[in-house]
Protein 1
Amino acid sequence: MNNSAKYDFTIIVPVYNEEDNMANLESRLSAYLTEASVSACILFVNDGSKDSSLQLIREVCGRNPHFYYLSFADNRGLSAAMKAGIDYAESRLVGYIDADLQTAPEDFNLLLADADEYPLVLGIRVGRKDSWFKRFQSKFANGFRRMMTGDGVADTGCPLKVMQTQYAKRIPFFTGMHRFLPALILLQDGGKVKQTPVRHFPRVAGVSKFSVWNRLIGPFKDCFAYRWMRKRYINYTIAEHNLNN
């Protein structure tokens, strides 16, 4: 058992070259933990940062008793960071927020209100503060993804999500998986998704890690990979066993 098992909710925070955001992350996340609607902890996943992010994460975790971290040996990408966080989390629920804090940790309480009923509750960004070109890319990519997956989700790129851990651990992970979380939850027996409006803010420090390639071209190719996998996805329910006898 690791320390996350002591909590109801583990918040996964992937970090890649976010040294300028670490002080704000510590302040905002520690404040949220005092008002979270369930017992919660923070799990940073350092994705092979090249700046001082890892050292700052160590210092933050040393000062805050409910903060923990994992660190990759090298850069593996957002989907790998999310998978590692889910793999290591032993709480009943897992959440996700970006280190850029363009969504508010306090809005996790909005999602947690439905987390017992829905295996995935995700935010829909209201009044997005991104550039018009970024909003256009996102709208186009979301529309194409909905057409290909049928998940019915308006804003799968919203970096604020809460999942029941038992469902999250059964997700078939692959590079680009983070864009298909709703569709991958819906593949599972009993999988349901709830969308909840959340606030959105401009990035105040650091730089975006996304480009036209990983917003449009990569997801376009990944949609075909998802459709191939969907036809071959395995579901089963154990009726009985004697392993505990």
Protein 2
Amino acid sequence: MIINYNKAEFQASYGLSSQLPQADRPEFVFSGRSNVGKSSLINKLCNRKHLARVSSEPGKTATINFYRVDQVYFVDLPGYGFAKVSDAERRRWDQLINTYFDQDRQTLIIQLLDSRHAPSADDLQMLEYLSHHQLPFVVALTKADKLKKAQADKAKEEFNALCQKYGCKAVVLTSAEKGTGVAELWTLLEEAYEGR
């Protein structure tokens, strides 16, 4: 293991694009809808319960949160697709995220999608965005523990077919509850780190 995932700490939150720090190391970016389980997956990858704050209220993460994990950053983007956000707040989020991706950063995006449901319009828009900007990404299908094995296998097959069209490098079934897919994600992150 190249990256020591146990060596993890919260670094900072940035709510304005002007606050974003210069990139000085590889960054693994977690993107997804509100309530898809980004914080839970980050915590599971780092063997921690409370590193990333898990909220029962969707849309709570309104900042880009940086976590120092050994010699890389985990970057948690604001969740998208939550209706109870003002237009002004949504514009701020959009500017923040666009500015982040416009900067010269060594990134791999972990795009989270709920394994139990077809991708939403917002999910598809995000896949289009990643594809259009030629950003390297893998897909983590969350909450796989809620599906029976046959359902999970079918979901993976269907998401694989869909996501490949957008240039996705891999689709991984995950469960923050049971640890499913964590080792596979570690491998993908380390391959990206080694190949930078």
